[in-house]
Amino acid sequence: MTNMVDNLRDLLSKEQVSINETILEQHGQDESYHQTSQPDVVVFPHSTEEVSKVLAYANDNKIPVVPFGRGSSLEGHVIPYDNGITIDFSLMDKIIDIRPEDLLVVVQPGVTRVQLNDALAKHGLFFSVDPGADATLGGMVATNASGTTAVRYGVMRDQVRDLEVVLADGTVMHTGNLAAKSASGYHLNGLFTGSEGTLGCFTELTLRVFGIPEFETAARATFDTVDDAVAAVTSVLQVGIPIARVELVDEESIRQVNLHSETNFAEKPTLFLEFHGNEAGLKQDIEFTTELMNDCGCQEIIFESDTAARNLLWTARHNLAYAYIHSNPGKKMMVTDVCVPISALAGAIHHAREQITAFDLTGGLVGHVGDGNFHAILMVDMNDADAVRRANEFNEAIVMYALNKKGTCTGEHGVGVGKQKYQELEHGAAYVLMQQLKRTLDPNNILNPGKIVKVD
């Protein structure tokens, strides 16, 4: 242990290598409910060259390495269960290049979503992926992050044009280029995005950005049933209305929103919507959407074009997790994450609500219903073994329902350790190929071992 710390300080500097107990504790957990585990040492590189040196050293000595952004992940991705070295990318936080004419940016992995959007605003641009937390972009690529705007702009994988990756042995490579499309070679951007630090460490990201919409309008639509709300969303998508956000919040979650945000929303299944575009186009979209919503049994739809009113709506939605936490002191939040075909969404949400009741759990359901992704927010006393067991059984029940409907065990939170046990069941023979890829790129299994796939 002492030799490892000394060797790392020789490679970097004394200030960049920490064994401070508080630092180790901070890097032994994320925002999830999973068991904590501390690294032996945390390093803070400034450059690709330094990351390469650390990985080459770790590979030669078969020391586990875990990349770390802000620790906002939800499935234990950054928890170093085999100890070893955690690489914290917070000092690699430079925006290297903004290319307005190409609608691209080049950034280091420690840049956060809010930091990037602040810099882009002066160019009339914005970065679209919004997972709720102010996560680092490196972490967002690592987990293929998604969020409320995915229905219009796509998920993180859709924004990646090129990655600079340091492989397990210290080799530095690029996965793409600046071109808008390419038919050359294998699609390495897709392979490394969502790999959760198991195949390499990202040191530079080239990402797609968008022009800030001329106009934005938000809306809140209430329904008597979840079926009606999902039917309304399906209708909107089928006719091609370019909706930017569409979120379903169930009755219990609306109740929590009202308590926490001091709103007075009707406690019914509710859709939070947002539209982006020009003034004339938005007027048509709003009229058509209103007609479709009413045809599906909408009880009330209220549009908000004022910036303050729109921000209030989305702040209430984004703060829903905190609303549950504040209403349930002493309990830990467990957030599940499955995705099904949209045709199966209403049934999946009904099933999830039935299971919450059957397992006698406290929680609510929310979803990015435009792409079939929904979450159960559960509040669990982690000191109550029976409560933990019931929560885990609930999680398994909704995962199995999703897989039986040809869906996936995780739409956006990623695999980490929480969803690792479902990988072989979901992917079948493709899981064996994933294991082979892992062994090829990381033969000593030093990169975030035990995450996504298990190898011998």
How does this structure look, described?
With 456 residues, the chain is α+β, with helices and mostly antiparallel strands. It is 37% helix and 21% strand. α10 packs across α13 and α14 runs antiparallel to α15. The two termini are 25 Å apart.
Summarize the structure.
Helices cover 37% and strands 21% of the residues. Strands 12, 13, 14, 15, 16, 17, 18 and 19 form an 8-stranded antiparallel β-sheet that branches. Strands 5-6-10-8-9 form a 5-stranded antiparallel β-sheet.
Which term fits the overall shape?
Answer: globular
Termini distance? 25 Å
Largest sheet, in brief, is: 8 strands, antiparallel
**Strand portion:** 15-25%
Helices, by number, come to: 17
What structural class do you assign from the helix and strand content?
alpha+beta
Number of strands: 19
**What's the Cα radius of gyration?**
22 Å
Topology:
Elements lengths: L1 H10 L5 E2 L2 H6 L14 E3 L4 H13 L4 E4 L16 E4 L6 E5 L4 E4 L5 H9 L3 E2 L10 H6 L7 H4 L2 H4 E7 L5 E3 L13 H5 L8 E8 L1 E2 L3 E9 L2 H13 L4 E7 L1 H11 L8 E8 L1 H17 L2 E7 L2 H12 L1 H8 L4 E4 L2 E2 L5 H14 L3 E7 L4 E8 L4 H20 L18 H5 L1 H13 L15
Parallel strand pairs: 2-4, 3-4
Antiparallel strand pairs: 1-2, 5-6, 6-10, 7-11, 8-9, 8-10, 12-14, 12-15, 13-14, 13-18, 16-19, 17-19, 18-19
Helix pairs in contact: 9-11, 9-14, 10-13, 14-15
